[in-house]
UniProtKB/TrEMBL annotation:
Transmembrane segments: 12-32, 103-124, 136-159, 179-198, 236-257, 286-308
Protein's UniProt name: Nickel import system permease protein NikB
Membrane topology, record value: Multi-pass membrane protein
Residue ranges of every copy of the ABC transmembrane type-1 domain listed in the record: 97-305
Single GO cellular component term: plasma membrane
PANTHER family (UniProt xref): DIPEPTIDE TRANSPORT SYSTEM PERMEASE PROTEIN DPPB-RELATED
Superkingdom of origin organism: Bacteria
Pfam family, one: BPD_transp_1
Family (UniProt): Belongs to the binding-protein-dependent transport system permease family. OppBC subfamily.
Organism per entry: Fictibacillus solisalsi
Residues in coiled coil: none
């Protein structure tokens, strides 16, 4: 299959996947305990008031009818309106998404820089003290929960040392203050990904270093630096890129805890608030956004494969 055919096929799969995800989320929200009409009406609302709210929002219709109405809106570009704020879901996501995107990008940069460097050095210094320490730290990075690490970083660098702000992304990311605000949440969110990338980079480099073509290059007198950069690193990057792509997709959807800890107004925090308020349209819109981005990131990873290794064919 040619690359263009792959892209078309993935987009078709994307549509089917999003329909399935939207149905699961829609059904889950409706069968969960609690009535959004009662939450909207408040404790003083009468039965008639609640019924009027249900009628106005279409919540008294059968679930499948409600889902069909919602799906028609999605395909026409209308994600609905928030039950709580009456704000357009698209508008709310547009306002919140830049913070989530900036956090995810900063986190994946931290993860790639630390993970790839640590993995390559560990492979080159196989069975050394650095390799053992790197492996131990990587296991710790995977095991440490984000909420605990975030709290510890805040306590050390924001409260005790007062080097960095406690939280919030109120300044543009390209300013000094914006960068300072991103450091702690990016370290918190990127640590686990850095550990996984380091483990994969180490394994991939160890496999490539022992390959016949690497021994041949060394036998021909090619400098060690060129052997590592031109022969080893490029071929070892394919599985590493897979892990980086998957982790970036997870970071886009996995910022919920970190955004809560650092009081960042992103999509993850919006999702938590909407779930608590039984705000169906907002939850469904946020989940659809995250799912779409995750699939698109994986498509981009497949395309990057072809540029890194011309031997890969999609036919």
């Amino acid at each position: 299959m040619k690359l263009a055919g792959l892209i078309v096929q993935r987009f078709m799969q994307l549509i089917l996947l999003l329909i399935g995800i939207s149905f699961i989320v829609f059904l889950s929200m409706h069968i969960a305990p609690g009535d959004p009409a009662s939450i909207i009406g408040g404790p003083t609302a009468s039965k008639a008031d609640i019924e009027a709210i249900q009628e106005n929002l279409g919540l008294n219709k059968p679930i499948l009818v409600q889902y069909w109405d919602y799906l028609k809106g999605v395909f026409s570009g209308d994600l609905g309106f928030s039950y709580q704020t009456k704000q357009s879901v698209t508008e709310a996501l547009t306002e919140r998404f830049p913070n989530t995107l900036n956090l995810a990008i900063a986190s994946i940069i931290v993860a790639v820089v630390i993970g790839v460097a640590a993995g390559i050095i560990s492979a080159l210094k196989h069975n050394s003290l650095f390799d053992a320490l790197s492996t131990m730290i990587a296991l710790g990075g995977i095991s440490i929960p984000n909420f605990w690490l975030g709290a510890v970083l805040i306590l050390i660098f924001a409260v005790n040392l007062q080097w960095l702000p406690v939280g919030g992304l109120t300044d543009p990311f390209w300013t000094i203050e914006g960068i300072k605000q991103l450091i702690l949440p990016a370290l918190t969110l990127g640590t686990g990904s850095a550990a996984m990338i380091a483990r994969m980079s180490r394994s991939a480099m160890l496999e490539v270093i022992r390959a016949d073509y690497v021994r041949t290059a060394r036998a021909k007198g090619v400098r060690e630096k060129s052997v590592i950069m031109l022969h080893c690193l490029r071929n070892a990057m394919i599985p590493v890129i897979t892990v980086i792509g998957l982790n970036f997709g997870f970071l886009l959807g996995g910022t919920i805890i970190t955004e809560q800890v650092f009081a960042i107004n992103g999509v993850g925090r919006l999702m938590i608030e909407s779930i608590a308020a039984r705000d169906f349209p907002m939850v469904q819109g946020a989940v659809l956004l995250v799912a779409t981005l995750f699939v698109l990131v994986n498509l981009i990873v497949d395309i990057v494969y072809a540029f890194i290794d011309p031997r890969i064919s999609y036919e």
